[in-house]
Amino acid sequence: MENMKEVAIDSSAVESFPSIRSGSYANIGTRHSMDDEHIRIDDLSAHLGSFFKWPSAFYAVFDGHGGPDAAAYIKRNAMRLFFEDAELPQTSDIDAVFLDALVDCHKKAFLLADIALADESSVSSSCGTTALTALVLGRHLLVANAGDCRAVLCRKGVAVDMSQDHRPSNLPERKRVEELGGYIEDEYLNGYLSVTRALGDWDLKLPLGAASPLIAEPDVQELMLTEDDEFLIIGCDGIWDVLSSQDAVSFVRRGLRRHDDPVMWARELVMEASRLHSTDNLTVVIICFSSPIVVESCTPRRRFRCCSLSEESRNRLRSLLEGT
């Protein structure tokens, strides 16, 4: 997927770092085990020290399959895999050259994480995980995705997909798989896996260095956040199996306008997916970039119907009151 660069890059993008608030919630759903993991870091510099010279934040969701081990390993080693070992570009400016290098660096980090799983003895070769990361650097948002987790930006109430689902039903993915000798059976890659990109799953991949139908390379999208961009939702596929991108954005936006609490509405979004009979683990992170316009809730006033009494009724009422 092509990188999205909608606004010219300038130094003010760093100085106007959004006042980020975030919330997350995860639930096992109807599954027997919880294979999802997630990361929520509103202040990345507190974790990385001098790696970034600018305000930054980092979020991720991982949806494991074949057991929880691959997702748990990637979460546990995320700072090393995505930052410390990733050979981040060194510069004092966030410019086009830096952003291109950062995109390449993030792609490389996914591939290195994939190799790390191949070398990790505690993770079975039949175990894997999808991965989606969201990095906020200044006012720049960079989303990388391999698998069927999804990132959706709310722009003035309109859902803007920041990732694509890597599933066999995705025609470009199906074509790529078939060109590399794989096949799709009942919407499963090689009759086994419901995604076409993932970290791990080395029993389904060709030896290192060979082109494989199942790959770990992410699609990356990058844009500059504006005042129109209200929040980002990232979630595992258990959410998106039962909610469209726009449905999720509208649900969260209405909620945030009543109670400006992303933790609450992350939970409510998970509960909504559960009410809609999602059959998967449920994990979501909501990252707010601006304060919502709060809609005041008020108790409606009672309306009383006014009426006039006839002269006869007034005399009868007076008689009752006077006891006569």
From TrEMBL:
Pfam families to which the protein is assigned, alphabetical: PP2C
Catalytic activity reported: O-phospho-L-threonyl-[protein] + H2O = L-threonyl-[protein] + phosphate; O-phospho-L-seryl-[protein] + H2O = L-seryl-[protein] + phosphate
Alphabetically ordered keywords of this record: Hydrolase, Magnesium, Manganese, Metal-binding, Protein phosphatase
Cofactor (UniProt): Mn(2+); Mg(2+)
CDD domains to which the protein is assigned, alphabetical: PP2Cc (cd00143)
EC annotation from Swiss-Prot or TrEMBL: 3.1.3.16
Keyword Cell membrane found: no
Domain PPM-type phosphatase: 21-289
A GO CC annotation given for this chain: cytoplasm
Enzyme class: hydrolase
GO molecular function: metal ion binding; protein serine/threonine phosphatase activity
SUPFAM superfamilies in UniProt: PP2C-like (SSF81606)
Origin superkingdom: Eukaryota
SMART domains assigned to the protein according to its UniProt record, in alphabetical order: PP2Cc
InterPro entries attached to this UniProt entry: PP2C, PP2C_BS, PPM-type-like_dom_sf, PPM-type_phosphatase-like_dom
Family: Belongs to the PP2C family.
Protein name per Swiss-Prot or TrEMBL: protein-serine/threonine phosphatase
